[in-house]
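Section 5: illustrative case.
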């Protein structure tokens, strides 16, 4: 299976990492996507392994230090191509089939709600190219991309350099611990991991290394 960048080639939703704005707001987001034992290592190349978004979590922060959290967002999404969650995914994220049945939205509605949450934020960050999964799922859903170009950026290379860690070790949920900070509740959930990324970025900005 081609890599995500190949499957959404030509989209201009992302931009190189740029400096944090001095004022306004930024959004940090994280996704949970359908997964199976070993799917990450094989880049979701197994039969029927589609990278469908199951959860979008995000925090909106004041762009200026100390980057106070202003609001939060979390929504569940019902996958279509793989509607039955794997036991591996359920154990990893704590998201159950019952959760999806009660609270899951279509991807179209979830992405529109996320766009409303982002609103006029100056910058949207993720620890990795999570925006590619959003683009891919939007393409599957046949919907227009609801965000301005050059809004999304991948902070992982910056985190890797600032923390002197290989990018493979900059796992969102463990970033605070690498900095000697307490773990953030909700590991491997969209909102929990967004808050973990935010905590690490605050600390690195405070130290002047990011």
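Designed sequence:
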């Amino acid at each position: 299976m081609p890599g995500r960048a190949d499957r959404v080639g030509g989209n201009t939703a992302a931009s190189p990492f740029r400096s944090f704005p001095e004022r306004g707001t930024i959004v940090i987001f994280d996704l949970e996507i359908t997964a199976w034992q070993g799917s990450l290592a094989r880049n979701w190349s197994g039969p029927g392994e589609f990278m469908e978004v199951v959860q979008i979590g995000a925090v909106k922060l004041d762009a200026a230090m100390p980057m106070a959290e202003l609001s939060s967002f979390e929504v569940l999404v019902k996958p279509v191509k793989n509607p039955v969650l794997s036991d591996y995914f359920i154990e990893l994220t704590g998201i159950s089939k019952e959760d999806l049945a009660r609270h899951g939205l279509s991807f179209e509605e979830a992405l529109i709600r996320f766009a409303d949450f982002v609103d006029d934020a100056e910058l949207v960050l993720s620890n990795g190219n999570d925006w590619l999964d959003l683009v891919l799922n939007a393409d599957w859903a046949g919907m227009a991309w609801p965000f301005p170009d050059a809004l999304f950026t991948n902070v992982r290379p910056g985190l890797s350099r600032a923390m002197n860690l290989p990018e493979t070790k900059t796992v969102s949920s463990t970033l605070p611990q690498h900095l000697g900070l307490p773990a953030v509740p909700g590991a491997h959930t969209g909102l929990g991991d967004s808050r973990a990324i935010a905590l690490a970025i605050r600390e690195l900005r405070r130290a002047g290394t990011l």
